[in-house]
Design brief:
Distance between the termini: 17 Å
Order of helices and strands: HHHHHHHHHHH
Oligomer: single chain
Number of domains: 1
């Protein structure tokens, strides 16, 4: 579980509720019809804008946004350096079984291409094409949440207009005008909160996780090609560490087996 994502939403909602309680009656800020307009309208517009398959992809993306990535750049580099050492001692064939044991399809595919004797340029081309389509799938998920963030305030305004029209349609009781105006503005509040506290931050988190995943895949590509070229393991390590920030390069090596997870390729 990614505590930063969960705590951000919980803290944000908590502070909003506390502020409302301090200012007045919290029940004045509750409107079921406003929820229907904002969230129902947003999801309906998303269904119009995207295909059903793309809309349904939002569910696993939520799991990605709230899950903690178990991947570690140093672990991956250590694994690739170990592969380089094994290939120099025992040959490339020994890497096939090692790659399968890791459960990382991208790395396994690259190693399999190398073991099969595929030309280095073709290996790079195949892996970069797969990486490009992986990035596009990630970008689609980000666009869904970004679109939801853009639409929810608009439906908040629509709900406000609906409330104002209903209020102006019955001006026989002047005492109810203030209450009606407050109810009409609640929908705008819901739209703004949904956009700025939920949809847009989730889109940002997905973008960050996607960038991390793409970087890890680029490290794998360079590592695989270095192994194929028979480069010295120390040179391989230094080359791959150039992808990392100085802080990451100086971090202690992990002692656990590498977990090459992250954003799922089907996201």
């Amino acid at each position: 579980m990614d505590l930063a994502t969960l705590l951000g939403i919980v803290i944000g909602m908590f502070l909003l509720i506390i502020s409302i309680v301090i200012e007045g009656d919290i029940l004045l800020f509750w409107s079921f019809s406003s929820i229907l307009i904002v969230f129902g309208g947003t999801f309906a517009a998303i269904m119009i804008n995207f295909s059903m398959e793309q809309v349904l992809s939002v569910v696993p993306l939520l799991k990605v946004a709230f899950s903690r990535s178990s991947s570690n750049s140093i672990n991956i580099i250590n694994t690739l350096v170990e592969f380089a050492e094994s290939s120099r001692r025992e040959g490339l064939l020994v890497l096939e079984e090692k790659a399968q044991a890791l459960g990382e399809p991208f790395l396994e595919k690259g190693i399999q291409l190398v073991v099969d004797g595929t030309d280095a340029e073709l290996v790079r081309s195949i892996l970069e094409i797969e990486l490009a389509f992986l990035e596009e799938r990630h970008r689609l998920g980000q666009r869904v949440f970004e679109q939801m963030g853009a639409l929810s305030p608009a439906f908040g305004m629509i709900g406000t207009l609906i409330g104002l029209i209903a209020m102006l349609g019955d001006l026989n009781d002047p005492d109810q005008i203030g209450v009606g105006m407050a109810v009409a503005l609640i929908t705008t509040l819901y739209g703004a909160v949904a956009s700025n506290l939920i949809f847009l931050p989730i889109a940002g988190k997905l973008r960050l996780k996607s960038e991390e995943e793409i970087l890890l895949k680029q490290v794998m590509i360079e590592g695989i090609l270095s192994i194929q070229a028979g480069e010295n393991p120390r040179i391989v390590e230094e080359k791959l560490k150039s992808f990392l920030s100085p802080l990451q390069r100086n971090s202690p090596k992990e002692v656990e087996d590498p977990l090459l997870g992250g954003v799922t390729e089907d996201a």
